[in-house]
Design goal:
The protein is of the alpha+beta class. Helix content is 29%, strand content 16%. The strands form 5 sheets. The chain has a 5-stranded mixed β-sheet with strand order 5-4-3-6-7. It starts with 13 loop residues before the first helix and ends with a helix.
């Protein structure tokens, strides 16, 4: 008989096929009935198989430590188990039923981070212990909070398959600082710009906490993996073109009076406020605004008289029209002319003080001629 194989028709089935082959190779008995595989295996055997698989795929002597094994048990069962536990694990738990609150299975998540780690860009970082990886947000917070600002660590994302995130301590919300988990990046992102270069871009990430719980300056830990020297002055032009380079930035919440508002963009060690000269104004409902009534004190001399209100024209301007208060009188002085053309009647009111064409013979003027002459 040959080694187990699975035929797939699409690359999206590759992860499930690898899980089937792993289960078959690890837990099938010698001399078994063909195609018979146990449905449940002890957790101790499964975690040992995953440890061997990890070392083989990542080509590393650094496998899954105690912390990683406990983390994986908690991810699968929802609670921590020792590595030697005989708690049964079914195939459905392993690669059929999605994890709690997720849309992927345990094996799909594990295979995703394994593919991420074994890549040539990240494998050296794993071998050097720079990627802790298997650590939850709560444990990550407990590890970083006692540290000074600008300390960070690398961990695998809980919510994305094949995602790696940077957890860092910054001082943007409280005086004592807080721990933030940056947006996860996948292998596709690291093919565009490698992880060491992304870390170098941001000076708010200065000291990395390793898997051995040792703190190292980032240039000491990642310096040999930087893709380009820090000084690119000698490479400013390539084939006549000005050289450009992608830079990573991070945006953290900014502290305000009610902890609402914008954020600061942190790039290359400098803090560039999104609007340094514009204060952040919280959006609130008009009902929430407290309006202070105006105290107006008036005296008889401060109230303009009726004559002052009527005579509001500027003394240095010659007005062609009478004062607005005389409009009533001007209307009485208008002359009404009735122009009759067949069944059409047009009323024309012309003020007596306005000039008009005396050559127009209104009573005998045809309507079409009237409109034509008016347009010219």
């Amino acid at each position: 008989m040959s080694l187990p194989l699975v035929v797939i028709v699409n690359v999206s089935q590759e992860s499930n096929a690898r899980g089937t082959i792993l289960w078959e190779n690890a837990f099938a008995d010698e001399g078994r009935i063909p195609f018979y595989v146990p449905d449940k295996v002890p957790w101790s055997k499964l975690i040992d198989a995953l440890d061997m698989k990890w070392k083989h795929e990542c080509q590393s002597t650094r496998g899954l430590n105690i912390q990683a094994k406990q983390y994986l048990a908690n991810k699968l069962f929802g609670y921590t188990l020792p590595p030697n536990s005989d708690q049964p694990v079914s195939w459905a738990q392993f690669n059929r039923e999605p994890l709690h609150g997720r849309n992927f299975t345990f094996w799909q998540w594990f295979n995703g981070i394994m593919e991420l780690t074994k890549h040539k860009l990240n494998q050296p970082l794993w071998n050097d212990g720079l990627i802790i990886g298997f650590i939850g947000k709560v444990e990550c917070r407990e590890k970083l909070l006692p540290q000074p600002m600008k300390h960070f660590l690398l961990r695998y994302s809980d919510s994305e398959i094949g995602g790696l995130t940077i957890a860092c301590k910054a001082d943007k919300i409280s005086d004592g600082g807080d721990v933030y988990n940056l947006q996860p990046h996948s292998l596709r992102d690291y093919n565009i710009r490698a992880l060491p270069d992304r870390i170098r871009d941001v000076d708010q990430l200065m000291f990395v906490v390793t898997a051995d719980n040792i703190v190292k300056p980032k240039n000491e830990a990642f310096g040999k993996y930087y893709s380009t020297p820090a000084d690119n002055g000698s490479k400013s032009c390539v084939d006549g073109y000005v050289r450009t380079e992608l830079m990573q930035t991070i945006t953290l919440p900014q502290q305000t009076g009610n902890q609402l508002g914008g954020g600061n963009i942190l790039m290359g060690g400098s803090e560039h406020a999104s609007s340094p000269t514009t204060p952040v104004t919280p959006i609130c409902s008009p009902l929430d605004q407290q309006l202070t009534p105006l105290n107006v004190t008036s005296s008889p001399s401060s109230i303009p008289s009726v004559q002052q209100q009527q005579d509001s024209r500027h003394p240095s301007i010659n007005y062609d029209l009478p004062d607005i208060t005389d409009f009533g009188q001007a209307a009485q002085q208008q002359t009404s002319n009735i122009i009759t053309n067949g069944s059409t009647t047009v009323a024309s009111s012309v003020p007596s003080n306005m000039d008009y064409d005396d050559t127009l013979d209104f009573p005998s003027l045809d309507m079409n001629e009237f409109l034509t002459r008016s347009m010219h």
